[in-house]
Design a protein that fits this description.
By secondary structure, the protein is an alpha/beta fold. The protein has a domain of about 140 residues: Rossmann fold (3-Layer(aba) Sandwich), CATH 3.40.50.10610. Helix content is about 30%, strand content about 30%. It is built from 5 helices and 9 strands. A hairpin with a 4-residue loop joins strand 6 and strand 7. It is elongated, with a radius of gyration of 24 Å. It comes from Paracoccus aminovorans. Pfam families: ABC_trans_aux. InterPro entries: ABC_trans_aux.
């Protein structure tokens, strides 16, 4: 009898632990129909966004008054944070500027003109009620005379509430602001001209006609 009761209690506990309705998942989803800017990127491959460890895990993180970064195993992101951040940023830049920005790997036969790399240093819902997104972004242009960019960003969005839903909304708005900054190539930093002649692509080499044979 005691064994039966113990087994029943264990099964009930396992059932409670596996109840999916007790786990909340949140999307990164910037609002559509925002600002429109000129296309300054053309075609660009966006490398996987580099995120801090606390921001790349599956749990939604926030900072408490004691300065600690905490999370809850029942409050999760709906997708891998790095993947979601990268894909969302690429789509948002494309939508607002008309550029063709695609997350790696590049799927088109024609290679991109530019590469984008974003290194996030902070992506955190702070204890002061502000979501902070800061770091640096780089635009590589290998064409002779191309303009390479090395710039920083520091974006703050009021949380406007408490809990993971407010964090998800603020992060989505911060990503939209970052997309606007990258699309316009703005922010503190500098532009560096490409001085070296780019190496020819392997397909360009083999597409050239062969020289005539001597005596022909």
């Amino acid at each position: 009898m005691r064994l039966t009761l113990a087994l029943a209690a264990c099964l009930a506990l396992l059932g409670a632990c596996s109840n999916g309705e007790k786990t909340a998942r949140y999307l990164i989803d910037p609002p559509s129909g925002g600002q429109r800017v000129a296309d300054r990127l053309g075609t660009a491959e966006l490398k996987d966004v580099s995120l801090p460890e606390y921001a790349s895990g599956g749990e939604v993180s926030w900072q408490t008054a004691d300065g600690a970064v905490r999370s809850n195993t029942k409050q999760l992101w709906a997708d891998n944070p790095q993947r979601a951040f990268t894909l969302t940023l690429a789509r948002t830049i494309s939508d607002m500027s008309g550029a063709t920005v695609i997350a790696e790997p590049w799927p088109l036969s024609e290679p991109p003109r530019r590469t984008l790399e974003i290194r996030v240093e902070k992506a955190l819902a702070q204890a002061d009620g502000v979501y902070r997104l800061s770091g640096r972004y780089f635009v590589g242009d290998s064409a002779s005379g191309g303009a390479n960019q090395a710039r920083s960003f520091d974006i703050s969005v009021p949380l406007g509430g408490e809990g993971p839903a407010a964090i998800a909304r603020a992060q989505s708005l911060a990503i939209a602001q970052l997309a606007g900054q990258i699309a316009t190539l703005s922010g503190p930093g500098r532009s560096i001209r490409t001085s070296a002649t780019p190496m020819p692509r392997i397909d360009d080499i083999f597409s050239q006609p062969l020289p005539a044979l001597e005596g022909s």
